[in-house]
Amino acid sequence: MPEIIQDTDTDMVLSLVDLARYPIADLESAEGAAFLKACQDQMEEHGWCNLDGFIRPEALVALADESNALLPTADVLTIKRNIYQGAIDPSLPKDDLRRKEYTHVATQLADDQLPNETLIQRLYQSPRLTDFVRRVQKKDVLHRCADEFQALNVVALHPGSWHAWHYDTTECTVTLLLQAAETGGDFAFLPNSRTDETEDREAVDRLLAGDMSHTQKFDRGAGTFTLFRGGYSLHGVTEVEGSTPRVTAIMTYDEQEGRVISDDINIRIYGDRVKNILAERAASSINA
Questions:
Q1: pLDDT score recorded for residue 102
Q2: How far apart are CA 173 and CA 230, in angstroms?
Q3: Which of 48, 41, 105, 106 is nearest to 224 (CA)?
Q4: Which residues form the Fe2OG dioxygenase domain (predicted)?
Q5: Taking 70 as the threshold, does the pLDDT of residue 169 lie above it?
Q6: Domain locations in the chain?
Q7: Distance between CA 201 and CA 242 in Å, rounded?
Q8: What is residue 17's DSSP assignment?
Q9: pTM of the prediction?
């Protein structure tokens, strides 16, 4: 592990990010301001901002090694959910594609399984990184997600696996690709497919029927940092091919400080481990 990332007091942005290419630690400088505007413009035009090589090569090795060492302790989750990650809307017609539940398999570390001292947790906890994400998204305030399970996750998709179409439970999501698949494993999404009030039902129905002509995909090498509006853009990952798992860190942010995700959704995602944690907690509360 490189010497530069040993100091536990160091903001991980300063140690891990390629600041020569991406000056997120000095956004008030002329160079930093120009970079920020380019990110904002990309987000405004496309609904995403993609920063290839965001992590320095030697730091990426350390992050990937760290995650691959932790992943054998993770649960292999079979996740079944609809695109909204909640209960099926009973008002929808029986044959409506939005009622369909999709199943995918992932090896997944939840936030409570990622120790505070890990590099990826320390990067996620960086105030500089949070402020950068806030400013790219043009938010007055932005907080790291307060949910004990969903805030930061590391997800491995093994060959043959994919990530089913879904909306995120918070608006602002960031992904950091730690290890790319040999082939496949493309991030695909339908930009700005819904708002708080409406949804582009025609576009969503086309996608769920298998028509990906209106989706956007882009190449992402390991070390790529991608910002997108996951709560408003239907998205997923295509099937991973080859022999190398696709490993991604998922960082979640929210305008509302302290907001947590419902127990029902967390149990749907994380399965028996979280179900048992919540049940034991409820029993302890009753017996207290």
A1: 86
A2: 6
A3: 48
A4: 147-257
A5: yes
A6: 3-287
A7: 35
A8: B
A9: 0.89
pLDDT digits (tens, 9 = 90+) for 68-112: 999 999 999 998 888 888 778 888 888 887 788 888 899 999 999
Question: What distance in Å separates the CA atoms of residue 120 and residue 175, rounded to the nearest whole number?
Answer: 12
* Exposure string over 61-84, b if 16+ CB within 10 A, otherwise e: bbbbebbeebbeebbebebebbbb
Residue 6 confidence class, pLDDT cut points 50, 70, 90? low
Q: How far apart are the first and last CA of the chain?
A: 45
Determine whether 143 is exposed, middle or buried from the number of CB atoms within 10 Å of its CB (0-12, 13-18, 19+).
middle
pLDDT for the residue 8: 58
Question: Looking at 95-224, which runs of residues are DSSP E strands?
Answer: 102-109, 143-144, 152-157, 163-166, 172-179, 183-184, 187-190, 216-217
Q: What is the CA radius of gyration of the chain?
A: 19
Q: What is the C-alpha to C-alpha distance for residues 154 and 69, in angstroms, rounded to an integer?
A: 12
How much helix, strand and coil, in percent to the nearest 5, is found in the chain? 35, 25, 40
Q: CATH 2.60.120.620: does it fit domain 3-287?
A: yes
